[in-house]
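your task:
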Amino acid sequence: MTGILNRRTLFWGLGLLLLLLLGAGEAMAQMPNMPTIQMPEISINGAPVEEKAKMSTYLQLMFFLTILTLAPYILVMSTAFIRIVITISFLRTALGTQQVPPTQVLMGLALFLTMFVMAPVGMKMNRTAIQPYFAGDIEQGEFLTKLLAPPREFMLRQTRGTDIDLFLELAQIRNKPKTADDIPIYVLLPSFVLSEIKTAFQIGFLLYLPFLVIDMIVSSVLMSMGMFMLSPMTISLPFKLLMFVLIDGWELVIKGVVKSFNPIDPSP
């Protein structure tokens, strides 16, 4: 019985709301100074051959919003962020400091270092594509081509040839590209990511070696003294921090990571 009453109440409520909306619409139509809302007209027609094709403003806005939603993935997977964040994570693990520095601090440091490394790429994109497009010197098609050229050049400089060959084989592309410009972007992107992960793991291995030596020395000393119940990590942590501070480890690590990239020339 209660369910029937609830359905009837909902039905009458919706009917009353519909009547109110219709009455409000008629009242607004009778108001002389009431502004009208006009939706954009969409038409599909054939343009003459001599006319250059241009993208609609609404399509440009939709394309921009789509790129904005994918911006975090583009930032992570097509820039120097991969190598930097993996290297810093390896460093924190090798030190054995658990959550020090915090993850937010490491992500912020990796982000700012990525901006520093990618600055020449952004400068070249601005000089060769963005400014000429705003000045009206180039069309949209040429703008997109020149805009993607600097990031593509950066990724090619960091990518191993073996990784490119691997994905060319997986894509079943029999005719090997003759030049770097002929490599498809769907082949270049995973090749770049794989190369960056390999390089970051190599750097991480080198970072682990000095801290591993300290752990082995402390463990040997504790075993010789018969202190089996005392964790070697607890004793070795202060020595790791002392060594890292004395050699100015953060400067050495950041300097080494930044110099490990093969930058591009920002000039056009």
Remarks:
- Confidence is low (pLDDT under 50) at residues 1-5, 16-31, 49-53.
- The CA atoms of residues 164 and 188 lie 7 Å apart.
- Residues 185-224 form the longest helix (40 residues).
